[in-house]
Amino acid sequence: MKNFCPIILVMAMASAASATFSGNIISVDADGFGNGIDISTAFDGVILSSVGGYSGLDGKVYAWGDGLASTSTNVFANNLSFQRQWYSDLTDGFALRADFLQLAKSVAIDIIGDDWGDYGELYAYNSSGELIGYVLSPQLSTGEVFRATIDRDWAFDIAYIIAGGAFSTTETVHLDNLTANVIPEPATLSLFALSSLLLTRKRKKLY
Q1: Sequence-ordered list of residues with C-beta below 8 angstroms from that of 1, at least 6 positions apart, any chain
Q2: What angle do CA 149, 104, 147 make, to 5 degrees?
Q3: Which of 86, 158, 162, 171 has the fewest CB atoms within 10 Å, i.e. the most exposed one?
Q4: CB atoms within 10 A of CB 202
Q5: For residues 173 and 102, is the Cβ–Cβ distance under 8 A?
Q6: Residue 47 is assigned to a structural domain of this protein
Q7: Domain containing 27 — which CATH number?
């Protein structure tokens, strides 16, 4: 029985590490905050900002109540009079940006039509600022929700995303419910590597 205890322990470590090696899910949602509360740095693992060249944009992201919210009552908002509307043109727009503190392999966000005929966009970039993923929503009616998703399979290389109404059609949309699958913390990766190494050594001794 003595010989099996270390093996069981190592297998348990490997199993736990394997479960988290696929990534850690972070969820970013404006629900639970009052209208106008700055939520730019309110969530672990991600920094939100408003980007674009529209005059008066302050670079922050706020929570705001919205009858078109896809989850509960709030959506992401900016400081402009448009508040809950987002437009992806970075020259003269007001897009939502999310920077991940750990690289992500997949991201998803709800794009919501604020009137009939809207289109929304989701862009994903790597740490060099190169575009590595893009999604254009289908045509949306008022309140219709499209879950825009970019999945890089096993490549954890998404550093940040930008979302908003489609530049090509000059549309605005509402945005809600951002999630990302980010690379585990270095400590988790070390545990995975160590447990795998120990398990390999134990197996070699058995043969």
Answers
A1: none
A2: 15
A3: 162
A4: 15
A5: no
A6: yes
A7: 2.60.120
Residue-wise pLDDT tens digits, 14-38: 333 333 346 899 999 999 999 999 9
Give the predicted TM-score (pTM) of the model.
0.81
Q: Cβ neighbours of residue 95 under 8 Å, at least 6 residues apart? A: 50, 51, 52, 86, 87, 88, 89, 162, 163, 164
Cα(106)–Cα(22) distance, rounded to whole angstroms? 11
Give mean pLDDT in consecutive 10-residue pieces for the chain, a chain of 207 residues. 42 36 87 98 98 98 98 98 96 97 98 97 98 98 98 96 95 98 67 42 49
Q: Vertex 40, ends 113 and 118: CA angle to 5°?
A: 10
As for how many domains the chain has, the answer is 1
In a domain, 1, yes or no: no
